[in-house]
């Protein structure tokens, strides 16, 4: 028999402590995010990008887009990439051993021919079968790598190996980029003074239900399905509140794999993307930051709040569950690889705030929640529930979650509001009230599953998962 | 009276060009993007098109191609920022009559319009 | 009375609750009220923004029309002018819209129209308005004011000079650009005074202002290549290349003995682009002592101005992968062209 009373009172105190921490964190996040957005807006009040487009002084960029069985959309996506506003860039499409006709399509459409110029493998990757370039001068900036399947991280490394330019921009090939995405994302690198800019990331937006033509975003629409709207709120919270605030206090740990720019030589020096984790985007940034701290070089990570990159989120629960499963594993793996940073004052903000945050709130929270629910079920089953307590706890959690979402909507409104219709705002508010009940339990369960998968297949950390390009 | 289609995404510039042309006795219709231009082309008979290159939805080059394929006889003048040489070359290859670089002098625009329409 | 007693009763029963429940209910209520407040706030913000959009549209239309009338009509009456002025005085938003429009017109027009715009801008009191902002406005507005004044080339150097040393980066940047855009000659004089390195961002905007706004003679960039700030020196070496100032090659050559690798690299790149092939022996002079970034640049110089044999004779120590790649590439290219 479990001593329910004792457990309950321990639980209650822990709960209060936890919610106080969460609440203080929420206030701080709102505060920092507000400051960051305000400063960004003020500093960019008259920014016109024309000088950037006309100069020959811009650092050139290599865009890296790994593709695995994207035959249906690849041509359109490449065409749209080719029209980005930027004066000097190359596009490297990495065909990661696709089993469809992606490569053939690319070869015929863009009239590719074999390129035999020397290559150097700064990082080891799965075998590169061939490199292609276009015969046509209008596609001179296009490079296609054909390699054996090795997963996303491996494909990106192959791209980094071949990249001609000093800056690499890693994107998901199915993302829709704004025309001026590169010009905006490169800004932190241009404004660098004494501190070296190692990477820059941006806000990821949700493209579901938006009108997209020829790989370009034509009209922004609020997603129609609830599941996409719930993810929209999640993204608002993560980007407009979370990452904005982390960026303010220089504690950003992740740049989305969907759209991020890096200093190529530093990526190579740090060893490139880690092929042993599914959280390669987070892991790389953490490793690069660690390297800079160890070398005692002042550095910074840029973050741009403008909507630059639009991506379709899964509306299908099976796909969503795979995605979240992968995120949970990626998070756990990264934390494990860099466990020495946790609570380590040597790494300052990263050690004392960022990694603990990821440990408690990104990794541990779903697990605790899950155990809490199991415990609650046990109490119901044994008829030991104190309903008054339970309901009051529930009310706090519920309103706090809603408050988070509503605040995130405020930041959307304050920053670069994309949904101009008042009706849309009400729809989002409604979704905020439903999300903690109808959506959150699902994603919590998916991340618990992710952790279970991780531990059950454990053969030494990392090696256990073959990652194709699960989306 | 000649009818002119002005395709320009900056409304203010479009209006100014239209204002000036109207003063010179032309009838002017404005389209703010390539698609609107297509609609106007279907609805009216134009004697001249003045178009920008950087346009939303359908850029100027695509529009020029479209005009050449469907309304071959209408002459085109490009009015655009001259920062993309490749595009300008492209436009000339497609057979545009003239290119005016922004920033431009409205009086000069009128002169060139008159020359093309002669 | 009834309500008061009801509240009292509620309070009493609330007090009677266990501590945790009391805590939870209080916190829950607090969050709930915050939610309600935020929802109202967001919705009112949205409505306000929508209203502004509508108002803005009508301002844009009317103001643009008035500016067009001034620019393109042969007869312009005193009455039209005074309507414009009263219109501007009516509303802060109207002034903002008008300022934007003047900017767009100046960006798109040349010739006598620019002069007319400028004259009109001063006549309707917008210039004075901006001077006031410069004297006592918020810093964000000051940045905008300097930008507009410099685009329209409305001079007031006295007012601008202090901004060159302003602690706000953005104000300083605009002030620098102002002096370039409005200069009649020597647009880069301010460089002498500079004490902080230029960012790439600033360099790009300086270049742009020199090319597209400044109307005087192109400055002799060689004057500043020995500047104490590395970024200034590099910027000017680069400008020699972009403006094809062949006459400065003689002054560039001594910079090949420069210890600063970044500067040396830039010099080699400029000599390469200007195709000064007789500089090659001097470029190769200290090859062994150069860092790999300079060595890489030298390889590029040879692949453009030299030949295959020259490259092979370099006898470089290729233990740096970046260098080796550059070397192999140069070899590949020279072989395929010869």
Automatic annotation (TrEMBL), chain A:
<feature type="transmembrane region" description="Helical">
    <location>
        <begin position="357"/>
        <end position="381"/>
    </location>
</feature>
<keyword id="KW-0328">Glycosyltransferase</keyword>
<comment type="similarity">
    <text>Belongs to the glycosyltransferase 2 family.</text>
</comment>
<keyword id="KW-1133">Transmembrane helix</keyword>
<protein>
    <submittedName>
        <fullName>Glycosyltransferase</fullName>
        <ecNumber>2.4.-.-</ecNumber>
    </submittedName>
</protein>
<dbReference type="GO" id="GO:0016757">
    <property type="term" value="F:glycosyltransferase activity"/>
</dbReference>
<keyword id="KW-0812">Transmembrane</keyword>
<dbReference type="Pfam" id="PF13641">
    <property type="entry name" value="Glyco_tranf_2_3"/>
</dbReference>
<keyword id="KW-0472">Membrane</keyword>
<feature type="transmembrane region" description="Helical">
    <location>
        <begin position="6"/>
        <end position="35"/>
    </location>
</feature>
<keyword id="KW-0808">Transferase</keyword>
<feature type="transmembrane region" description="Helical">
    <location>
        <begin position="387"/>
        <end position="411"/>
    </location>
</feature>
UniProtKB/TrEMBL annotation, chain B:
<feature type="domain" description="Response regulatory">
    <location>
        <begin position="3"/>
        <end position="117"/>
    </location>
</feature>
<feature type="modified residue" description="4-aspartylphosphate">
    <location>
        <position position="52"/>
    </location>
</feature>
<dbReference type="Pfam" id="PF00072">
    <property type="entry name" value="Response_reg"/>
</dbReference>
<protein>
    <submittedName>
        <fullName>Response regulator transcription factor</fullName>
    </submittedName>
</protein>
<dbReference type="InterPro" id="IPR050595">
    <property type="entry name" value="Bact_response_regulator"/>
</dbReference>
<keyword id="KW-0597">Phosphoprotein</keyword>
<dbReference type="InterPro" id="IPR001789">
    <property type="entry name" value="Sig_transdc_resp-reg_receiver"/>
</dbReference>
UniProtKB/TrEMBL annotation, chain C:
<keyword id="KW-1133">Transmembrane helix</keyword>
<keyword id="KW-0812">Transmembrane</keyword>
<feature type="transmembrane region" description="Helical">
    <location>
        <begin position="20"/>
        <end position="47"/>
    </location>
</feature>
<protein>
    <submittedName>
        <fullName>HEAT repeat domain-containing protein</fullName>
    </submittedName>
</protein>
<keyword id="KW-0472">Membrane</keyword>
């Amino acid at each position: 028999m479990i001593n329910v009373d004792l457990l309950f009172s321990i639980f209650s105190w822990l709960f209060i402590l936890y919610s106080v921490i969460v609440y203080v964190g929420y206030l701080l996040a709102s505060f920092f995010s507000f400051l960051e957005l305000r400063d960004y807006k003020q500093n960019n009040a008259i920014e016109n990008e024309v000088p950037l487009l006309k100069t020959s002084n811009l650092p050139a960029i290599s865009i890296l887009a790994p593709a695995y069985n994207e035959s249906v959309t690849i041509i359109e996506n490449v065409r749209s990439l080719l029209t980005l506003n930027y004066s000097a860039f190359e596009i490297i499409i990495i065909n990661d051993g696709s089993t469809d006709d992606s490569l053939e399509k690319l070869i015929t459409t863009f009239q590719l021919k074999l390129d035999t110029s020397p290559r150097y493998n700064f990082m080891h990757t799965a075998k590169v079968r061939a490199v292609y370039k276009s015969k046509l001068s209008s596609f001179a900036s296009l490079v296609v790598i054909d390699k054996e399947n090795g997963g996303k991280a491996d494909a990106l490394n192959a791209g980094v190996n071949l990249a001609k330019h000093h800056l690499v921009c890693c994107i998901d090939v199915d993302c829709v980029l704004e025309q001026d995405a590169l010009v905006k994302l490169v800004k932190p690198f241009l404004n660098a003074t004494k501190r070296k800019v190692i990477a820059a990331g941006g806000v990821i937006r949700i493209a579901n239900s938006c009108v997209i033509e020829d790989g370009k975003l034509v009209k922004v629409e609020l997603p129609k399905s609830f599941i996409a709207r719930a993810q929209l709120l999640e993204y608002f919270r993560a980007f407009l509140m979370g990452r904005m605030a982390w960026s303010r206090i220089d504690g950003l740990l992740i740049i989305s794999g969907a759209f991020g720019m890096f200093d190529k030589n530093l990526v190579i020096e740090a060893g490139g993307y880690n092929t042993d984790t599914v959280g390669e985007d987070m892991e790389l940034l953490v490793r690069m930051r660690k390297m800079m701290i160890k070398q005692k070089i002042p550095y910074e990570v840029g973050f741009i709040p403008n909507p630059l990159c639009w991506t379709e989120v899964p509306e299908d629960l099976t796909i969503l569950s795979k995605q979240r499963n992968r995120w949970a594993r990626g998070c756990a793996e990264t934390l494990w690889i860099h466990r020495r940073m946790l609570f380590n004052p040597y790494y300052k903000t990263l050690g004392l705030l960022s990694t603990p945050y990821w440990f408690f709130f990104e990794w541990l929270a779903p697990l605790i929640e899950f155990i809490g629910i199991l415990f609650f079920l046990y109490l119901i089953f044994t008829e030991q529930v104190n309903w008054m307590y339970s309901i009051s706890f529930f009310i706090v959690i519920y309103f706090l979650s809603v408050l988070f979402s509503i605040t995130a909507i405020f930041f959307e409104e304050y920053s670069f509001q994309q949904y101009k219709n008042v009706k849309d705002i009400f729809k989002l508010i409604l979704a905020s009230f439903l999300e903690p009940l109808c959506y959150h339990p699902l994603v919590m369960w998916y991340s618990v599953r992710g952790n279970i998968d991780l531990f059950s297949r454990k053969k030494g950390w990392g090696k256990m998962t073959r990652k194709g390009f699960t989306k | 009276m000649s009818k002119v289609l002005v395709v320009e995404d900056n409304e203010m510039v479009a209006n100014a060009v239209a204002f000036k042309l109207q003063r010179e006795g032309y009838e002017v219709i404005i389209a703010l993007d390539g698609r609107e231009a297509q609609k106007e082309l279907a609805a009216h008979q134009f004697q001249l098109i003045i178009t920008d290159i950087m346009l939303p939805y359908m850029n100027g080059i695509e529009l020029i191609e479209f005009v050449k394929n469907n309304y071959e006889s209408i002459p085109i003048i490009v009015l655009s920022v001259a920062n993309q040489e490749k595009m300008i070359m492209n436009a000339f290859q497609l057979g545009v009559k003239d290119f005016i670089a922004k920033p431009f002098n409205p009086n000069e625009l009128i002169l060139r319009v008159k020359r093309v329409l002669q | 009375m009834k309500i008061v007693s009801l509240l009292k009763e509620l309070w009493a029963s609330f007090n009677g609750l266990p501590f945790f429940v009391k805590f939870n209910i209080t916190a829950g209520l607090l969050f709930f009220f915050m939610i309600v407040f935020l929802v109202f706030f967001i919705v009112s913000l949205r409505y306000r923004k929508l209203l502004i959009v509508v108002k803005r549209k009508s301002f844009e239309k009317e103001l643009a029309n008035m500016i067009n009338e001034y620019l393109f009509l042969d007869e312009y009456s005193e009455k039209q002018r005074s309507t414009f002025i009263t219109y501007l005085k009516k509303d802060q938003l109207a002034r903002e819209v008008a300022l934007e429009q003047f900017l767009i017109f100046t960006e798109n027009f040349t010739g006598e129209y620019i002069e007319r715009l400028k004259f009109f801008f001063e006549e309707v009191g917008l210039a004075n308005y901006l001077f006031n902002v410069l004297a006592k406005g918020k810093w964000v507005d000051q940045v905008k004011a300097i930008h507009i004044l410099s685009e329209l080339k409305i001079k007031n150097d006295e007012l601008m000079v202090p901004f060159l040393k302003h602690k706000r980066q953005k104000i300083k940047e605009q002030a620098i650009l102002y002096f370039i855009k409005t200069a009649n000659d020597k647009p880069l004089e301010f460089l002498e005074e500079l004490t902080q390195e230029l960012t790439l961002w600033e360099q790009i905007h300086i270049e742009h202002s020199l090319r597209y706004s400044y109307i005087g003679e192109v400055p002799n960039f060689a004057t500043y290549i020995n500047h104490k700030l590395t970024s200034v020196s590099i910027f000017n070496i680069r400008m020699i290349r972009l403006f094809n100032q062949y006459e400065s090659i003689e002054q560039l050559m001594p910079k090949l003995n420069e210890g600063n690798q970044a500067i040396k690299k830039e010099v080699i790149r400029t000599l390469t682009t200007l195709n000064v092939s007789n500089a090659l022996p001097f470029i190769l002079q200290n090859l062994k002592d150069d860092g790999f970034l300079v060595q890489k640049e030298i390889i590029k110089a040879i692949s453009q101005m030299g030949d295959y044999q020259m490259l092979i004779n370099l006898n470089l120590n290729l233990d740096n992968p970046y260098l080796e790649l550059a070397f192999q590439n140069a070899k590949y290219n020279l072989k395929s062209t010869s």
